[in-house]
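Per reviewer request, we include the raw input and output of the structure prediction for the construct analysed in the revised manuscript.
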Amino acid sequence: MKASRTSSSPLLPFAMLVLTLILAALDQTILSTALPVIARELRGSWPLAWVFSAYLLAATVVIALYGRLADVLGKKPMLLLAIGLFLAGSLACGASQDVQQLVLARALQGAGGGGLMTLTMLTVPDLFAPEQRGRYQALLGAAYGVSTMFGPLLGGALVEHLSWHWAFWMNVPAAALAWGVLASTLPSKPMAAQASAAEEGRQRTRIDWLGAVLLTAALVLLLLATQHGQLNLPEAVSLWLLLGLGAKFALAFIWRQKRAAQPLLPLSLFARPAYAAVSFIGMATGIALYAAVVFLPQYLQIGLHLSPTGSAWHLLPLMAGITVAAVTSGKLLRAQRPAISVARVACVLMLLSFGLMIGVLRWLPAEPLALSAALLPLGLGLGLLFPIVTVVAQRVSPAQHMGIATAAPIMLRSLGGAAGVALLAALLTRLVKQELTTPGALAHGAADAVTAALGHGLQSVFGCAAVAVLLALIASSWLVQKRPPEGLANDGLLEAAS
């Protein structure tokens, strides 16, 4: 079966997909260096941490809904809607006059950005033949990883030379260009489904809105719990209340999915071993990526007294590793290399990286270049895994569920990053406080004591991240080699064992 193609070269619309994914990835981290300036210039009673959390919440909760709506209404209209919301949110963010306006505008921007992360991956099969998709999915994975890393650098440069408003306004011309090109070049209909026309008609009439509401409530409550310490919520809204309500809504969502005629997230997908494996691997990559991106700059800035921009430059080996390995992963998939082998190599590289970082913090804690070099294997491992998660998830799933099957691992990666960082941050805070309050901890000066405590705490943090990667390595065993079905012989991909 041939993929639906555009009438002209697919490279132009693909370039626009890359552009939109870059914009969505940048906006996850671009404010890390711009936020202090925003805090000085904007008034408001809401906590400034909500500027980050509003985008994270909105982007995460809409991922699954975008995936399902793409199955029902088509990918093109949903992609154009996501770009439009992101563009409108960017305009509103740049024009905000107080913190409250900025928080609400960031939520609107996130409602579009969450769709961009899913729909760009989902649209690739409409542009390229099966044997080419791994390569282009890999390029999207590389663009996402590198853009996330460059966010702090770009944010610092914009604040220094222009103003914080341009951290948002720069999105407007790029998003408008992408919207116009994609509106005119993408095929109007999604790739031909294997389901019958009658079944497709029934699919188009049903959306599990109750399931969507339950999932949204569960995700919002659980994500608020991960950010509880930073958001200054009312005293009545305790951490345990958020966790308890979130768990109840999550269980209600699962109950609904088992009984809904057209579930938002078919649980049958997770009965496929390969799909369950890549979903867990996606979550582990979120934990590993953000553990390095969030905590290592903190150590470089607080412990070694580097500037925000200087600490961001030390992430370059991570960027380089992601870029090179993502392209390589696409080539390996195209050459029909077993995904199980590539995934195992990736996990081993990531374990090596966390081991090296723990060793550097133990024996060379004052050498930022050694820490920077230790990031390279992590970047290589992440780059190898990014395309595998998306491509394998698409290939082991029924055509009528392609959208939600692509979206779920991306949603889990965001959840893994958010929840993992929150839990690891709580662990780090506890370990640092515990060490600083021990007798004689400050004997050699407060600054040296903080640096030592932070370094010791990060060894435990990176050890926990390594455990997540180790579990991903075990899960990769569920990627089993099986002869692809007729019509997909050139995919070089893996199906789940039935």
